[in-house]
Amino acid sequence: MQTIFVMVKCDLGRAYAVAGEAAQATEEISEVHSISGQYDLLMKCYLADDADIGHFVTERIQTLPGVKDTFTIIAFKAFT
């Protein structure tokens, strides 16, 4: 299992709509949090070991209506 975090910048006024859509869009997105700073949302995603991260982000997250930009972080190990 691969764990990635995707920070999402949304079109103005669309963060809550994007969060709701993401939570329903795919089972790989396990959590969606609103955050402060340059990005509006943080999504925690679990992907199969053989899943292509690039395809997942570009085809499943970046295509959600209202998504303007993404920044992906790949997690190596969970300590808790």
Overview of the structural elements:
The protein is an alpha+beta fold. It has a single domain, classed as 2-Layer Sandwich (Alpha-Beta Plaits), CATH 3.30.70. The chain is about 25% helix and about 40% strand. The protein is built from 2 helices and 4 strands; from the N terminus they run βαββαβ. The chain has helices at about 15-25, 55-60; strands at about 1-10, 30-35, 40-45, 65-75. A 4-stranded antiparallel beta sheet has the order 2-3-1-4, with helices on one face. Strand 2 (about 30-35) and strand 3 form a beta hairpin. It is globular.
Strands across the major sheet, in which order?
A: 2-3-1-4
Assign the structural class, choosing from mainly alpha, mainly beta, alpha/beta, alpha+beta, or little secondary structure: alpha+beta
- CATH top level label: Alpha Beta
User: If you average the pLDDT, what whole number results?
Assistant: 96
Low-confidence stretches: none
Task: Provide the CATH topology.
Answer: Alpha-Beta Plaits
The total count of strands amounts to 4
> What best-fitting shape do the alpha-carbon axes yield?
globular
Please tell me the CATH architecture by its name: 2-Layer Sandwich
- Beta percentage is 35-45%
Q: What's the total helix number?
A: 2
Outline the biggest β-sheet.
Answer: 4 strands, antiparallel
Describe the protein's topology:
Blueprint: E1 2-10, H1 15-25, E2 29-34, E3 41-47, H2 53-61, E4 67-75
Antiparallel strand pairs: 1-3, 1-4, 2-3
